[in-house]
Amino acid sequence: MSKRVLLAAPRGYCAGVDRAVIAVEKSLELYGAPIYVRKEIVHNKHVVSTLEQRGVIFVNETDEVPEGATVVFSAHGVSPAVHAEAASRNLKTIDATCPLVTKVHNEVKRFADDETEILLIGHNGHEEVEGTAGEAPGKVRIVDGLDEARTVVPTPGKKLVWLTQTTLSVDETMQSVAILKDRFPEIANPPSDDICYATQNRQEAIKAIAPQADLVIVVGSTNSSNSVRLVEVALEYGAKAAYLVDYAAEVKEEWLEKAEIIGVTSGASVPEILVTDLLNFLDMHGYNDVQEIKATEESLLFALPKELRKELNKR
Question: Mind listing the pLDDT tens digit of every residue in the chain (315 residues)?
C-alpha cells in the first residue's frame, strides 16, 4: 500500500483569526495580566488554553469583568447591547471583531428599517449570529438550515433581504438562498458575498482532495463552525470517511487501517503547529509522502484594532 497524505492549502489561520489572537497577545504586553476576553477569542481549544496559561481570563458576559478592567471582544463580534453594557461598567474595550463580520453588521444596520425584515442564514445560538442579529432587534429572522428556509414565515407586508453568517458551507447556503428566492422572488441580495473568503477557500481545497481520499482528517474544534463544515464538505465530495480532531492524539488507529490516501486540512482558527503534529503522527504510521494541494493563494492581512494601534503608536 503506497501511503500518501494530500495536504490542503490554504488551511489554518485566516486574517481575522490572526488579528484577534495578536490583539490579545498585544493587550497582555501593553496592560499585563489579567486580560479578560468575552467568549472564546476564536473557536479553538489549543489557542484558548495557551492564552489562559499566559493570564487571559475568558468570561461569558461582560458583567463578569471587574469594573474598569480591560476586555477584548472576540473575532465573532458582539451586539450594540454588549458594547453599551461594557461602557456602563467603565471597561476598557478592545474590539477584535473580524472586519468581514463587521461588514455583515453594517449591512444589517443599513437594511434594518420598519419596512424591511432581514432573513439571516446561520446557526441559531452561534456567537456571530447573536451579535449580528443584535444590531437590529426584532428586525432579523434567523434561518437555520434548509428546513427553516422552506418553512420560515416572514412578517406579512415587509420587504425582505437575505444575509448570512460568514462561516457557513457555501453550497448549503446557496441551496437555502435558492429556496428563499423561489418562495419570495422579490427578496433582495446582500451588496456582496457574506461568506468569508477563508471559509470558501478552505472548502474549495478540501473539495479537490475529497474524491481521492480514503480518509480526511480536519484539525479543529467542535464549536468551530467552519471546521465542522469542512468535515461535511469532505464527505459530500466523496471522501470515504472524515473526522474532526483537536489534536493528533485523538486520531484512532482503526481509521488508518484501510486508508491509503489521507486528506489533511484545518479550520480557520487552527494554528499550524497542530497540523504539523498530525503530519508527524501520520509520518510515524508510514505516511511519509506529503503532497500539498493548493486551491488558491491568500495574502490578506488586517490591521490591529484601532484601540491597540493608538496605544502602540504612543510607545
Answer: 789 999 999 999 999 999 999 999 999 999 999 999 999 999 999 999 999 999 999 999 999 999 999 999 999 999 999 999 999 999 999 999 999 999 999 999 999 988 999 999 999 999 999 999 999 999 999 999 999 999 999 999 999 999 999 999 999 999 999 999 999 999 999 998 899 999 999 999 999 999 999 999 999 999 999 999 999 999 999 999 999 999 999 999 999 999 999 999 999 999 999 999 999 999 999 999 999 999 999 999 999 999 999 988 887
How would you list the strands of the sheet with 4-9, edge to edge? 242-245, 215-219, 261-266, 4-9, 289-294
Among residues 40, 107, 127, 128, which one is catalytic? Answer: 128
* 3-class secondary structure, 144: coil
Q: Is 0.90 topped by the overall pTM?
A: yes
For cell 482532495, what's the residue? 209
67 carries an active-site annotation: no
One-letter amino acid for residue 259 of the chain: A
Q: What is d(CA 46, CA 48) in angstroms, rounded to the nearest whole number?
A: 5
DSSP type of residue 54: T
Q: Are 7 and 290 in contact (CB under 8 A)?
A: yes
